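One chain shown below:
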Amino acid sequence: MRTRAPALVGRESEIDEIERMLHDARRSSGSAVFVTGEPGIGKTRLAAEAVGRALDAGLVVLRGRGSTTGPAVPFRALTEALLSLARTGGHELVEQLGPYRSVLGRLIPDWAAGADTAGDSSLVVLAEATLRLTGLAGAGRGCLFVVDDLQDADVETLAVVEYLAANVRTQPVVVLATLRADPSPALEAAHAAVRRGEGFLMPLDSLRPAEVREVVASSLGAEPGQVSADVAERLFADSAGNPLVVEELLHSMVAAGELVNGAAGWRFTGHSRGAVPSTLVTIITRRADRLGERGKQLLAIAAVLGRRFPLSVVQRVSELDDHSLFGHLQSAVAAQLLIADERGEDWYAFRHPLTAEALLTLLNPAERVALSAKAADAVVELHPDLPGELCSLAASLRLGAGDRWAAADLYREAARRALAEGAPGSAIAVLEHAVNLLGDDADRGDQSGRYRDLLELLLFALAEAGQFDRAVKVAGSLRPADGRDPARQIRVHVRLAWAAQVAGRWAEGFEQVAAARALLPEEGLDEESVAVDAVDAYLSISGPAPDRVRRSEELSRRAVAGAERIGLPSTACQALYAVGFVVRERDMAESDECFRRMLDIAAEHRLTNWRNYGLVGLGGNAWLSEADPSGLETARAEALRTGGISLAYNAEAVLGLHSVLCGRFAEAEQRLGACYTEASRIKLLAVSRYVQMAQAVLAGHRGDRRTMETALADFRRDGGDTGPEAPLARGLAQVFCSLLEEDRETARAELAKLAADQTRQQSTFHLAGTHGLKLLLDAIAGDATWDDHRRIAAGAAGGMRWNRHFVLLAEAVLHGRDNAHEAAEASMRRAAQAAAPFGVARPLGLRLTAEAAVDHGWGEPAEWLREAESHFHGADVIPVASACRALLRRAGASVQQRRTGTERVPESLRAIGVTLREYEVFELLAFRLSNKALAARLHISPRTVEKHVAALLMKTSVRDRAELARFAAERSSASEV
């Protein structure tokens, strides 16, 4: 007799809402819903109904389930969901993932791009890969992504679900997660997502009496009227409206003959409540009893293993032969206690978690301990390597057997594997559980060494996660009062220093480095010494010390030597990259050599990730030296091919800046916008900040101060002012914008301040202006000497093509000042070659240098000014175009009239008679400049400015100049919207 309701009862409104979500998903309007409720309330049943309706509507369905083996198995539910796609094909979709295919290859090996793949280990990148895959799977038809029992999922899967919920709105995907209403991290995450507007809760309430009657009728294959009122009332009272309990009670009643079907419908055989169980535990006990002692023993062994269990382990513990095992198994399945698990042929599961929990109550403590020990032995015998979740299963069994230390050792191994898979959250959860189960006295006695090993791995995991404060507490337990084992103590300080580095807490990081160095002996402990140098080098390059570049180079070189002597290829590559990065300013050839050595080591030891870093380093050097982006393009493509998402976006950000400097503004805007969107979404903060700087440079090179200031405000809000990109924001954005406003005084003042700042604190970014543009402006002003020129030209930074252009222009000015006209013109020709790629720097350099040529009578200033004027007039940079025309007049050259540009004047202002020149004054009034400053910008007299202002006051009918300035500012803001 079937006693499971085939129809879903009492959930009509929830189904209607899910139907709406599925319909919207087919139109690329995704959503996330968290179905909550007590155990047995019907969360999984509702999810199954959603799956059925999705499949009927042609949607793709991916489904996974949380694991009760605990948080030690990272990505368990996520992997299961992806496997449901892998089993039904999906290879064509995976091919479309590009670099993200390698990232998902960590979970589904068949999807890996190749043996040399080094996919990005970032959890956020993995979540983004999952989002993209579901989006591709649902393109044109929709996708339902289901995670059952989210409360049992590992923290990494929970983080992925949170990420999907936050970003699914524009995707053809519905994320549906079921979870218990009991307090848990999953429930907290669901509530947080709802508060952020990224999803909504769908709480399932208990069924009402009428709905319980419908469940009973559906389960018995009858109409509600065929179920007597007393049957419905008793089942409602005993179940409290929980559908699972209703079904369990009903099954027990029918099997025991207490409920029968007669002419008047389904009725009790007697008037008393008899042996009707009051709890689900009693129901499960009675059902297990019907399977016989051996069947009952099989269920008890399975319950000790957990909700899901490998049948081979149950057989080893029970010592049943195949025939008996499968006979009892079939009986348990028929009794609706067990179901086949989706993991594979060897795996079964209890139909509901409550079933396993109820069965455990059949065992007394001694029986549970004995079965746990036998089951743990069986797991190890059958699977000596304890792959996947079997390691955590063995640990929980050892704990159930009372062997805390064996359990702790296994938990430690599970945590080590989680760290290797890039899942520090799972590792921390497992290790803290192990530490807690051992108790406070575990660090005393014979086992203290094992306990400290456990704590040291916990410290490592906390450091990788950047949880500095928690790491400090753990480290306190690892410092013996008598100072024994200095090597271990040094490792503790190094881990704390790295935790501080990851968290951006430089001062605490340097304190830990100092403590580690104080413990280093004069000789010995080479590996620890190299580790200290490595972390110190990274802290130094990011820290506030004035000589941070010099110190980082010294430490990195020492780390390289130590790593190569000891035989640590990965550490050697890491240190070589740091050396190559910091020596660029001094010796580009040496920097190239460092990156080539990285490539050799990476090739020998198959270190794909470090190979990509070497390619980026060489590509960056080629770009700096000759403005050649091809190496960076190659490095970016290779990083994408092998799953190095973060590195690829780093290269993409630099290529976006390259497009700006080359004057390809539309391309740069698109490239930087796309890069910023992706980098922000997957939380690549350093890349996002670099892109913000480049966007400010883009606005500055357009002469668009308002947009530049907005971009700089975003840049500063995210910590850009204290970051390494700050000099570029000042030199490439602010200084250039001032020059395009013909405000040379402000530009020179900013460059002087920047040069002073860089004298006090070294920088690793070299295009900010102190190695070229400042020299040119000083030479034009008569403040630069040949000694200044030789000093800058001799450096590697002065030879970088962007800087070299300005250095050669300064050389021409100095030659012209010395009346060496032929040498000056030769320098101009070389400068023109160097400036060829640069869209704004070339005409701006001509405008600046032509002024000195007019004053000292050398070169072809009229030709240079006409080229610059044509460019800036076409680019609508009126102050520079006007300056070029004024210099042409001063040089006695003919000047092309540009009065046909009235189309620049907005129609509303043209209608009241505002002229082009009046509009040029009107635009600058928004900055509240004086008449003298306005005259200097437009190269007209202050008296002429006064006349234009008076005309504007009359034509716009405003009361005074202050109101006119506000009007100009408002129109400027409105034109940008």
